[in-house]
Structure formats: C-alpha cells, structure tokens
Amino acid sequence: MDSLEKTPIEEQTVEQNAVETPVEQTAEVVEVPETPEVSETSENVEAPVEAERKQYQTKKEVLERVREIAHGDEAPQKEEVDYLKTAFYKLHIAEREARLKDYIDAGGDPEQYQITPDELEEAFKAEMGVIKEKRQKLFKEQEQEKQVNLEKKLAIIEKIKAMVTSPEEANKSYKDFKALQDEWKEIKNVPAEKANELWRNYQLYVEQFYDLLKLNSEAREYDFKKNLELKTKLCEAAEKLADEPDVISAFHQLQKLHQEYREIGPVSKELREEIWNRFKAASTVINKRHQQHFEGMRAKEEDNLAKKTALCEKVEAIAAEENKTGSDWERHTKEIIELQAEWKTIGFAPQKMNVKIFERFRAACDDFFGRKAEYFRTLKENFKENAEKKRALIEKAKALQDSTEWKSTGDKLINLQKEWKTIGMVPKKLGDQLWEEFLGACNKFFEARKAAGGGTRSDERENLEKKRDVIERLKAAAEEAGEGLQEKVQQLVEEYQAIGHVPFKEKDKLYEEYHAVLDKLYKELNISVAKRRLTKFKDNLKQVAERGENALDSERARLMRQYEQLKQEVQTYENNLGFLNASSKKGNSLIDEMNRKVQKLKDEVQLVREKIKAIDAENANKE
C-alpha cells in the first residue's frame, strides 16, 4: 500500500494488561478467591471491529477525521489510526486505478501514463506525521506519569506498613489510614510489570491493619456495610451489562467496574464469598460474550484471508499465462479487473496478514500490467515502423501516379502493391487512412491508363476468356482426380498466371471463382500427397536406421526443429490476421490468401507430427 507510515506499538495501560480483581478483606482471615479474566488479551481489547466502524466514502472524509485527531485534544487510538490509514489508501488506490482505466479506455498509451500528485494524499501524510509525533509524545508522558504514580503508591504502602505495629497504633492512625486509602484510589496507572506485585503488597498491609483495628467496632461495621452497598451496586451494574447490545462497550464497562471493585474495602466475613461469587458470575457472562464475539470476528477474518488468497492465486495464474496477441492481453485484463472488483467486496483479513496479502495481490497485478505495457510499447514501435514503410510506398506511388509510361509504370505500381502486402500491421484507423491514400495514387494512374488505352480493352476481354478456359479445365481436373493430378494442376496454375490483365469489373468475380476451384483441388491434393509422403517416409525409416545407432534420433531432432519453426510461422500469420483490415475488397483478398497459407502450414505441421510419431513407433519396435 502506498506510503503507509509505521507507528509505534502503543503500550498497554495497567487497566488493560493487569486487571486483577482484589481479594476480599476481613479482619480475621486473608483468602485469595479465584479471579476471572477481565481482559482476555491486549490484542482482543484493541482488535478492530469492522462492523462498528464508520464507513468512509471519500478521502476527504478520512482526512477531516485525521485532522480532528491531529489537532484536537483527544488521544490518538492506534486501532482507529490504522483503520483510517487503510481506509484512505483503499479509496486512493481505487481512484488511481479508475483514472488509469479511463485513460487506457480512451486510447491512451499505458507507457506514457503519469500519476499526477494528489494534494489530499500529501495533506494526509502530513497530518499522519503530526499524529505520529503526538502519539510518541503522549506515550513518553504516560510512561513518566506511570513511574511517578508507582513512587507515590510505594510511599503509601510504606506509610500503611508503619501503622501496622500494634492495635493501639492502628486505632490512633485510623483516620490517616482512610486518607491514604482515598489517596491510593486517586492515583491511576503504574507500569504494567509492577502492577500485580504492587497491588498484592498494598492488600497485605491493608488487611494487616484491619486485623489490628479493635478500638471502634462500630466504625468497622459501618465500613463493612458501606462497602457491601457499593459492591452490591457494582454487581447489579455488571448483571445489567448482559443486556447491553454492544459487546465491546459492555466489556470495557466491565473493566471499569472491576477497577472500582478492587478499590472498595472489605465486607463482613460471612458475606464476603457470596458478594464475590455474584460479581464473578456476572463478569463471566460478559467475558464469554466478548470471547465469542472475537472468535466470530477472527473466523470471519480467516475466511476473508482464504478468499483473498484464492484471488491472489487466480491473478498469479492469469499473469503466468502466455499472451500471443493483443486480444489475449485484453481478455486477461478484463479477467483481472473483475478479480480486483471482487477483492474490494471482501472485508479485512487478520491484522498480521492484511497488508501482506494485499501486497501479494498488488504485486501479481503490477507484474501483469507492467508486461502488458511493455508489449504494447513494443507493438507501438512496430506500428510506427510499419507506418513509416507504408508512407514511403505512398510517396513512391504518388511520384508515379501522373506517369504516361503505361507498361513500365504499371509494373512498378503492381510491385509496390505486392511490397505493401508484406509490411506488418498498423492501428486500424491509421491503416485505413494510409491504405486509402496509397490506393488513391494507384487508382489515379490505372484509371488514366484505362482512359488512354482503350485499345487494350480487347486484350483484356481476350485474357478474360483465356482465364475462364483455364478455370473450366481446373474444374474438370477436380472431377477426374487420379494420378498426375498435382502436375496437371500446377501446369494450369502457371498458365493462368501467365495470362495478362482482365477487365476491372470482372477481376474480383474471376478471382473468387479461380480460387474456389483451387481451394478444392489443393485440399484433395494435400490429403493425398500428405498420405503418400508419410507412407514413403515410413518405408524409408528402416534404411535410415541402418545408417547408424543415432540416425533415427537425429532425424527426429530435425523434424522437431521443423515442427517448431512451422508452428511459429502459423502463430505469426494468425497474429497478423488479428490486425488485418478487411473493410475493403483488397483487404478481403489478402485475408483469403493468408488463410490459405495458414491452412497449408497447418497441414504441413500435421504431416511432420505424424512423421515424428512414426519414428517413435520404430524406436519402440526396436526396443
């Protein structure tokens, strides 16, 4: 996640880490009853409760709350600060990715995209820096205050200890003792590691003091009665917390009740266990609800982690797939964007894994989009190079468009058209524009030649009849089949190609008719020729094997190289077909021609594969 500042781990207070209910105090006996766990762990106390948090809709809302904390009087709470940080960058990243998507959808180049500075992010970082300093300062002040409180409480214990010498001294010091108790209650947090030992020592000397106190039994009974009333009210308050719908609030209120309970003096011996058991029973109910709440929350977070891990694996699998064409990249891009949208619907993972799992997901996405940007950057460079080549041909065509040397110039323009077909793809819009410009220059010459050379029309009509005759003979050959068909077809093709131009209006119709019969013939020839070639190859395998021990392996290696080369050629043609503009008749003709080449190459791939299988079978027979 971007620019996540690290904040110091907030130390736990005595109330959080060392809430240990005091033992009851009597003049006769000192017993230590079982104390329920008020705070299960410091992690549970401070664990974020997603359902109870405010859901921020904008970064501005988050920033306003951060400013309140940074410049207000309230102490920054670690869990809220972490949540605000996560909420801000979740919105920030979503906005940034949306802007990038809009830019790409509008036709922008991902390589040229620049992330603009965000004033809200800079302000957020500045305010988080203020909060960090504020928390560090507050932490130091709290530690200093705890140390001072520790010294004060140690001094109180020493004073009570000095009073516990004799009943007479205890009676005389009763008022001072009560004052020291009041002073003890006023002093709050002490270092966590000292809290329990400090409390046990305090209780020890308080109970010893009560053991020695004999002078005014009425005062003792009054204290016992008053303490009973106070503890009864605490029991009633703890029991009411069972109906509190807010589990977290109930738990924190119970902690305060325990703190008050510890600071109340003893009750009479016969009521001591009863009142304690009542308070402990009420506490157990709240603690159990609190524990169940966090167990449910942890289970949900673990489920969220499992879902996010599955999304990471899906994105990583997509990123690992090979993308051969632009359509492959776009298809995988759509899949990843859908997974990103699904990610946003899943809640938080466990705190220790939340950032790690996000970083894993983000790394897989960044890897994919980084390689996609590189692919299109390279493609753009190829487009640029191809466009320059086509512009050069356009300039040549324009230089020839006004020529009156009909024969030589016509040949030159035809050669330029052939060269045009060998150049790779460019973006469709630009490709259409360049093609129209090139075609316009060519057509200008040929139309002028046509207007000036009316005498050639009879030649073209004659050529038309000759080509139709060749087509009819090809059709007859297709019906006859038999031996020598391939040679016969080849002769007719050469004869057809040697015939000159035909009338322009008849050219496309004739072209389609000619290639329709050729496609049929080649399909039949390819099948029969391939079978003969494979049969001949199998017949020669034994002779190949006789050349030496490794002859078959060498032949297989050669065929494998040929197989990979043919596959690469097929991929190249298919990739080019993906970008070919078929909006014009010229484009359609080129696509048909390329499709024939692709099919021929695929037939050759199949034949080579069958040869390799034949070698494998021969090797198996030898074994």
| Strand-residue proportion | under 5%
Secondary-structure element string: HHHHHHHHHHHHHHHHHHHH
> Overall mean pLDDT score?
77
User: What is the helical fraction, as a range of percent?
Assistant: over 70%
State the distance separating the first and last CA atoms: 61 Å
> How would you describe the shape?
elongated
Number of strands: 0
Pick out the low-confidence regions. 1-51, 582-586
What does the largest sheet look like? none
Radius of gyration: 45 Å
Tally the helices: 20
Structural class: mainly alpha
Structural features, described:
By secondary structure, the protein is mostly helical. Helices cover 78% and strands 0% of the residues. The chain contains 20 helices and no strands. It has helices at 14-17, 42-46, 59-71, 78-105, 119-163, 167-172, 174-186, 192-212, 217-240, 247-263, 269-320, 326-344, 351-400, 406-422, 428-452, 456-480, 485-498, 504-545, 551-579, 585-622. Helix 3 packs antiparallel against helix 4. The longest helix has 52 residues, at 269-320. The radius of gyration is 45 Å and the shape is elongated. The chain starts with 13 loop residues before the first helix and ends with a helix. Residues 1-51 and 582-586 have low confidence and may be disordered.
